[in-house]
Design goal:
The structure holds 2 protein chains of 2 kinds. By secondary structure, chain A is α+β, with helices and mostly antiparallel strands. Chain A has 5 helices and 9 strands; from the N terminus they run αβββαβαβαββββα. Chain B is mostly beta strands. In chain B, strands 1, 2, 3, 4, 5, 6, 7, 8, 9 and 10 form a 10-stranded mixed sheet that branches. The longest helix of chain B is centred in the N-terminal third of the chain and has 18 residues. Strand 7 of chain A pairs antiparallel with strand 5 of chain B, so a sheet runs across the interface. Chain B: It comes from Marinibacterium profundimaris.
């Protein structure tokens, strides 16, 4: 009698632990995981695309390897998200001071039809001087987005124009081109700047 | 969109106009604070303006639309970012503000989207923006134009 109770309690206990482990897995690694809803971006070394920067230079993922890198997608006809991201990034770079000069900071357009090299040059000129603007043929922009696992979509607006839905996260890579982390859209500076510092310090560790 | 908002707001207007003596039921108690916008590059790109809309009165107010001589198509839009980090922007539904409450139009959320600019938005200048409410009232605010890289009303 007594023994059977113990067995029953034991079984219930094991069940409860299993349930907790299950819930834990679901939340952390399983389908309930909050962040990696999409896939992780590829390492820069595994990407393949050819674009042009705002000064007319041919660029690609290999251009970025060797220095820590911050990449984000947007478009210059974007009234809210993109100027906010660009001014957030400008603020982070100001906080980093001289260290910012050791990074690549790249804004890749998802709207190459309107964002010509000239349009990108004019636009990035209003933000932190470290920010480079990349554009190019639509198929190359698509390949870049695929590498970063970023998505974008053209959406018509009422006035006959269009806007773009797009991934607004900022991708951070170390100097070897491995993803360090991502910064969410409009993430507060006190969280964003330490993440960037992490990408910067992983260079030092990588070098030793 | 605007048309539908007015139709939706109509029963409320009729209800309130029967109950209260002043010409407008609520919108005269709306205060707009900390309005700001970013300069534009030319007129081809849409602009955006931000502000806090505070209802200091005792009636619920509903913001239904915008007008400004600066843009042919000013609309309240809302940016949403989903779990995958994808941001999208769409016209917002009408915005109801309870007595004593306020609604913030701020980067990454609600904003006054200024489509088809008539003139470039030049840093240092201001432009008038009129908020229209379901009770027929209007509130006009002079919006300062800050730099393209401005982050808030004070920068």
């Amino acid at each position: 009698m007594q023994r059977r109770h113990v067995v029953q309690y034991g079984a219930a206990g094991v069940g409860a632990v299993a349930l907790m482990l299950g819930v834990g897995w679901w939340r952390v690694d399983g389908p309930g995981a909050p962040k990696p809803a999409g896939q992780r971006p590829l390492p820069l070394s595994a990407m393949d695309f050819r674009l042009t920067d705002h000064e007319g230079n041919e660029v690609g993922p290999e251009t970025l390897i060797g220095r820590p890198t911050m990449v984000f997608f947007g478009f210059t006809y974007c009234p809210d998200v993109c100027p906010t991201t660009l001014s957030d990034i400008s603020g982070w770079l100001e906080d980093l001071g001289d260290e910012a000069a050791r990074m690549n900071v790249v804004f890749i357009t998802v709207d190459p039809e309107r964002d010509t090299v000239e349009a990108m040059a004019e636009y990035v000129g209003y933000f932190h001087p470290a920010i480079r603007g990349w554009t190019g043929p639509a198929n190359q922009v698509a390949r870049a987005a695929e590498g970063f696992r970023a998505s974008y979509e053209r959406v018509p607006t009422e006035g006959g124009d269009y806007t773009m839905n797009h991934t607004a996260s900022v991708f951070l890579f170390d100097a070897k081109g491995e993803l360090v982390t991502m910064i969410d859209y409009h993430e507060p500076r006190e969280f964003a700047v330490p993440k960037i510092r992490r990408a910067l310090t992983e260079v030092v560790e990588g070098a030793t | 969109m605007t048309k539908r908002s007015y139709i939706n707001g109509l029963p409320l207007v009729l209800l309130l106009s029967g109950m209260s003596t002043p010409a407008f039921a609520g919108s005269e108690d709306v205060v707009v604070e900390n309005a700001w916008s970013r300069a534009s590059i030319g007129v081809n790109r849409p602009g955006a303006a931000y502000m806090t809309v505070r209802n200091t009165g005792e009636d619920t107010v509903t913001l239904t639309g915008l007008t400004t001589p600066l843009a042919v198509m000013p609309q309240i839009h809302e940016t949403k970012t989903n779990a995958d980090g994808v941001s999208s922007m769409a016209p917002a539904d009408e915005i109801t503000i309870e007595p004593g409450q306020s609604v913030a139009l701020e980067p990454g959320g609600l904003h006054a989207m200024l489509m088809k600019l008539q003139n470039p938005m030049i840093e240092g200048e201001t432009f008038p923006l009129t908020l229209t409410f379901s009770d027929g009232g209007e509130v006009t605010v002079e919006v300062p134009i800050l730099g393209i890289a401005a982050r808030g009303p004070e920068s």
